[in-house]
Amino acid sequence: MSAPATAPRNIDENAPLLWTPTAEQIKNSRLFAFKALAEKETGQSFPDYHSLWQWTVTDVANFWNLAWDFMNVIGEKGGTVLAQPDKMPGATFFPQAKINYAENLLRRRDTSTAIIFRNEKGEERTLSFEELYNQVSQVRQGFEKAGIQQGDRVAGFMPNMPETLICHLAAASMGAIWSSASPDFGVQGVLDRFGQTEPKILVTVDGYFYNGKNIDCAEKLKAILEKLPSVQTTLIVPFLNKQPELGGIRAAQNYDEWRAAFTPADIAFARLPFNHPLVIMFSSGTTGIPKCIVHGHGGTLLTHMKEHQLQCDIQRDDKVFYFTTCGWMMWNWQISALASEAVLMLFDGSPFYPDGYVLWDYTSKHKCKLFGTSAKFIDASKAAWLEPGKKCDLSSITILTSTGSPLVHESFDYIYQHVKKDIHVASVSGGTDIISCFVIGNPLSPVYRGEIQGAGLAYAIDAYDDNGKPQPAGESGEMVCTQPFPSMPVAFWNDPDGKKYKAAYFERFANIWHHGDWLEKTPHNGFIIHGRSDATLNPGGVRIGTAEIYRQVEQIPEVLESIAVGQDWDNDVRVILFVRLKDGFTMNDDLISRIKKQIRDGASPRHVPAKILQVSDIPRTKNNKIVELAVREVIHKRPVKNVESLANPEALDLYKDLEALKA
């Protein structure tokens, strides 16, 4: 079988250089210190990041052994680092280790600030490391009194606020398993997730704030609990009201009053096997009921510490912000920064209320170092002509991370022109499946326009054609990982024989992790992601990544955003492009011609859509990812299996029975 052709592209060996770390920045980075240690231990020389990365994927076990010590992981490492290294699945890291995720995150007990929290109304509060530890201790005692044991599930239906991570750490400290969803999920969306994991305790709020509105959760909670019989205790965290109404909510208690009944004490952290379940993460669920992906204490902790300290240069007392909800993997990623003794900056609410500068104002006020967000936030800021670099003091922000979807070349331009000229832009990509980032930034390498800097340390990332052969730079292929890594899922929930797990990642290429992204290597050892491979378009047998089209379309001034899908047509596939325009604009022949010309000139004639249609909205998940597969199903009159995963499911109606697609 021969691999399908890919659309022609030009290898940009001269991609503009946007940022280079100074000699001082390199020397003061945690990665530089680790590189020096690795050179001493191995007797090798690693003159740059890529050479260091090459060692980490060649000698995986020695890398993780050294990283454990360098990052000062708390726990018993054991004598074996990696068992069955040639088997995926089957490889096991630190099989004799004893470790606890919460113990590592709660290593500090001093009175300096650990958490800063702001809600949408601008109200702020802080917790010190001592207060954080004490509140986790109280909640842990409450869980024990409620009968929670190792392996039991605790669920959070919560905003991104301190109580959410407090309850997560309390559960982790004793070996219970945490899962979470944000309170904007509908009833069925919550049941599709927690109904599978059957939590004994549900932690939730009385309501939340979003886009200037107070949204009460009482009726939704009653409907959820009616069909979630496993819940024995419902803890209501006061958020809208200091004294929330508990009537009619089964097994409800006021969280503040419940916690206050216990006196803070030293926590007896349960030292657990490396792969003891820590969290159950949920896939987006746009093609069916969400998969329940189980991640372990050790793999989650080590991988996050590696990414924080070595890839993002997070050091003690650095302030770390990520705009995220508790239904997105980046929430788990951010809170783990406590293990590196960093300060968390939490925010809950709309990123554009009361205006588009709210996140920049918040992070500049508190001298944040790492500003994390989604590519869609950057795109929306660009479309709104926001200039945070002029409006806010961003001098403290040294690294901006972006994920959720590909960060296109023009968004790199926007950041360096209108956010900050001297900033490390780290486009990152990974996901719920690995609770981490396969490709990511690093503080030693330059940033080139449109490129992710490289693969994460110890991630053997490549782009394969359909025959399992590596693609050269400039050609796209399936993203794969050819070596085992600690944050591979422990299992899928309710998958005792592992069939679903193996089918999800290991059926396409034997003994190789197949991730499902469409990836291009660059001459700088970097990467460009062109979208999900299951959403790639295949007109005339030529595979096209949707991100390649979006990059061109969204350069048109009238365009707000777009979504491209393939429509089965005349024994082939034709590309259909739906475009959402800015207020006041309407699709016409001139605009269609300009869009087609932009795509033809900027990508290739193969990328030009057969049809370009205006829509008023584009469906997306609650994590702000557009859903090509759902739109593709609608235009083919096939059912979308899980509309509860969408933030705006009503948008799908805009794509039904369109006359323009019948000819």
Written description of the protein model:
The chain has 663 residues and is of the alpha/beta class. It folds into three domains: 5-100 and 274-530, 3-Layer(aba) Sandwich (Rossmann fold); 113-147 and 154-223 and 232-270, Rossmann fold (3-Layer(aba) Sandwich); 536-661, ANL, C-terminal domain (GMP Synthetase, Chain A, domain 3). It is 29% helix and 24% strand. It is globular. The two termini are 33 Å apart.
Question: Which secondary structure elements does this structure contain, and how are they paired or packed?
Answer:
Elements: E1 5-6, E2 17-19, H1 23-27, H2 30-42, H3 49-58, H4 60-70, E3 75-76, E4 82-83, E5 92-93, E6 98-99, H5 101-105, E7 113-119, E8 124-128, H6 129-145, E9 153-157, H7 162-174, E10 177-181, H8 187-197, E11 201-205, E12 207-210, E13 213-216, H9 218-226, E14 233-237, E15 252-254, H10 255-260, E16 272-273, E17 277-282, E18 292-296, H11 297-311, E19 319-322, H12 329-335, E20 343-348, H13 358-365, E21 370-374, H14 375-383, H15 388-391, E22 399-403, H16 409-419, E23 424-427, E24 429-431, E25 436-440, E26 447-448, E27 454-455, E28 461-464, E29 476-481, E30 491-492, H17 499-505, E31 513-521, E32 527-532, E33 542-543, H18 546-553, E34 559-569, E35 572-581, H19 589-602, E36 611-614, H20 628-635
Parallel strand pairs: 1-33, 7-20, 9-10, 9-11, 11-14, 14-15, 19-20, 19-21, 21-22, 22-23, 35-36
Antiparallel strand pairs: 2-26, 3-6, 4-5, 6-16, 7-8, 12-13, 17-18, 18-30, 24-25, 25-27, 28-29, 29-31, 31-32, 34-35
Helix pairs in contact: 3-4, 6-7, 8-9
